[in-house]
Write a structure and sequence with these properties.
two-stranded antiparallel sheet, 9 helices, hpI Integrase, Chain A, mainly alpha, 9% strand
Length: 215
């Protein structure tokens, strides 16, 4: 498994251009799988919400994700590009049909939904531009999203829910948590308990004396 460092993640986000920006945002900021990016349709993008069609038996599981604070700007940027592609295609071909897919490209007077290779090539191009020489893929961005959430203090159960994991243990393996990570979590827990104790000292609770009952 591979992850980006926080510094590499920032470089990747800054290096993304044009349509690459929405792909990087969906995978690195919102934690979508490549298949989920490809399955996303326009109707799945709602105000403050994404309906994500994940993997799994019976056609895959659905889950609902909240937008990140920067999602609105990235969606507006991409949707303006998408509308421009549709207009350009219809200038060449009045019958050009708009695909149901959210992520599309134009070739002459026709519009198509992206496939795996196209998304892979985008991620590779952005990584090279960001100065990352080792091979990374779409799942590197998704795993990094989870790890960044953990570093930011997001509870594991919330990360598991966002990632569509049914078991927090899966999320722990996914994030590559080390003994050092778990030790830091214990330090944060102790710090939290100390803050609780300090708050109690400012408003002490009267402790009733223990009453012994004779047999």
């Amino acid at each position: 498994m591979d992850w980006l460092s926080p510094e590499e993640a920032v470089r990747v986000m800054d290096a993304a251009q044009g349509i690459e920006r929405i792909v990087v945002h969906l995978e690195l900021r919102l934690g979508l799988r490549r298949i989920e990016v490809l399955r996303l349709s326009v109707k799945d993008v709602r105000e403050q919400i994404l309906d994500v069609h994940g993997k799994g038996r019976g056609g895959g599981k659905w889950r609902t994700l909240a937008w990140a604070p920067d999602t609105k700007a990235e969606l507006e940027h991409y949707l303006s590009l998408r509308e421009e592609m549709i207009a350009q295609a219809r200038q060449k071909n009045r019958r050009a049909e708009e695909p149901e897919a959210f992520l599309i490209y134009r070739k002459g007077g026709k519009l198509y939904g992206y496939e795996r290779t196209g998304v892979d090539n985008m991620v590779h191009a952005v990584a090279r531009r960001a100065g990352i020489t080792r091979p990374i893929g779409n799942h590197t961005l998704r795993r990094t999203c989870g790890r960044l959430m953990h570093y930011a203090g997001v509870p594991l159960v919330d990360i598991a829910e966002a990632f569509g994991h049914s078991d927090v243990k899966t999320t722990m393996r996914y994030l590559g948590l080390t003994i050092d990570d778990l030790s830091k979590a214990q330090e944060r827990t102790l710090s939290y308990l100390d803050r609780v104790r300090n708050g109690m000292m400012s408003s002490p609770v009267k402790v009733e004396p223990l009453i012994r009952v004779r047999d």
